Amino acid sequence: MFEMTTELICYQADEVIIKKVLKEIAKGIDRYATKSNWIAPYTQNCDNFSFATNEIRDFFKYPELKEFSDSYVFLNEKVLGYKSHKPIETLLVEFNNAFAHFLSALRTINDDALKNKNIARAKAHLHRGALDAYKEAIKNKASVIKNNKHLVVKFNTLRTNEMRAIGKDDTATRKEYKDFALELY
């Protein structure tokens, strides 16, 4: 689903590529969820999006989207091996929520505070999705972790650090989870 996302993380993301990725996301949601109408109202009719301004392209420039897509690809390629061809629902929901907040920000006129709040929320959903992907990868190696004292200590430290960082910038937490997941694979 996100194989094309790397193309989007550039400043020349064009309308055709953006529509193609949105269609892929919609397909992934449809494959997973029977109630896709409540999960993905913003990705259902991808051809109807207007690209009259560059603002829609801004969403695809976010480094948070690159981090999210990298974690999604890692989870599917390295961990799941595309065995199930079934996307992880929580990641699709986080992407959908991020995109919904971004579209809300685009629709906000004359209220910069509300616009910025929606953009911050969009980025927070992408952060959450990336963290969830790495946690899913780690969960799939639970038996390996349990049988290695060094990994158990490292995992417990990771969880403790995460709890201490609640309500704060979670950049370090996401990096620690990513590093630990990469170490396991």
Written overview of the protein:
The protein is 71% helix and 0% strand. With 185 residues, it is mainly alpha-helical. It has one domain. The chain is globular.
Q: How much helix, percentage-wise, in residues?
A: over 70%
Number of domains: 1
In percent, how much strand structure appears in the residues?
under 5%
Low-confidence stretches: 1-13, 33-53
Summed over residues and divided by their number, the pLDDT gives a mean of 75
What is the molecular shape? globular
Total beta strands:
0
The number of helical elements comes to 10
Distance between the termini: 21 Å
- N-to-C order of helices and strands: HHHHHHHHHH
Query: Helix/strand/pairing class, anyone?
Result: mainly alpha
Radius of gyration: 17 Å
| Major β-sheet annotation | none
Would you kindly provide a brief summary of this structure?
The chain has 185 residues and is mainly alpha-helical. 71% of the residues lie in helices and 0% in strands.
Q: Would you spell out the secondary-structure blueprint of this structure?
A:
Layout: H1 5-8, H2 15-32, H3 36-39, H4 55-59, H5 63-80, H6 89-107, H7 112-139, H8 142-146, H9 149-164, H10 171-184
Helix pairs in contact: 5-7, 6-7, 7-10, 9-10
